[in-house]
Hints:
Layout: E1 2-3, H1 6-26, E2 33-39, H2 43-59, E3 62-68, H3 74-86, E4 92-95, H4 105-111, H5 123-130, H6 139-150, E5 159-163, H7 170-178, E6 185-189, H8 196-201, E7 205-208, E8 226-229, E9 233-236, E10 244-247, H9 252-255, E11 261-262, H10 270-285
Parallel strand pairs: 1-11, 2-3, 2-4, 5-6, 5-7, 7-8, 8-11
Antiparallel strand pairs: 9-10
Helix pairs in contact: 1-10, 2-10, 6-7, 6-10
Amino acid sequence: xxxxxxxxxxxxxxxxxxxxxxxxxxxxxxxxxxxxxxxxxxxxxxxxxxxxxxxxxxxxxxxxxxxxxxxxxxxxxxxxxxxxxxxxxxxxxxxxxxxxxxxxxxxxxxxxxxxxxxxxxxxxxxxxxxxxxxxxxxxxxxxxxxxxxxxxxxxxxxxxxxxxxxxxxxxxxxxxxxxxxxxxxxxxxxxxxxxxxxxxxxxxxxxxxxxxxxxxxxxxxxxxxxxxxxxxxxxxxxxxxxxxxxxxxxxxxxxxxxxxxxxxxxxxxxxxxxxxxxxxxxxxxxxxxx
Length: 290
Ligand code: GUN
């Protein structure tokens, strides 16, 4: 069994990005600039955004954090998005989700200029990814693809079962896995699937993104399968300073001995996501897609 080390891979990629940035700057090019919009004081969002700003520093990017209080109106947030769209110094930006209930998230996402949408959430990017055109791919599926590539996990002609059909992970992941060059045969299972266990037992690759701790058990895994665990559920743990620990969707202890490859939680897919946002920002700065 090979443990897929997302933390080490993410560090390698960030070093690669920094090298590229310094080369661009040395040749007189522009240092990539990412802006992040944070509304309110949600603990999880604060941590994510802080880590995104730190990753920008590690990659040699310029970053700008725009903070707004919870009571910002939708109109005010939309005008902030418009300003960022028009600001020539900003190559890409994100609006951290979730947003307060009185703001229509989809409206905000669709207001972002798709050429600066480094989260890859705008329908133009989602659609372009679906039809195999160059576009910003959302961070989690992009990170998984990068891990599979860097660890030389064979995907061509393999049966890949994806657990979960979310817009951010399951759906884009299914499209990427079936694309030319990746060439997997893809099955997407979700909470209403009747044959989920049987599908899993036949899978060469399982990508679990359903948010149920320990859901994928040893009896669901074919010996030699590659297992990608996207789950990051916070479960109470009194022995931790934070009061919780992260739990994946896979029963790691019993599944790991069976597989060819497996991602741990934490330290697997998680660390890759922010560094994929950095890759997208680098691409935005180079006007690589649009
Ligand atoms: N909230 C949780 N994950 C994400 C993400 O990848 N992007 C944004 N904008 N918000 C998030």
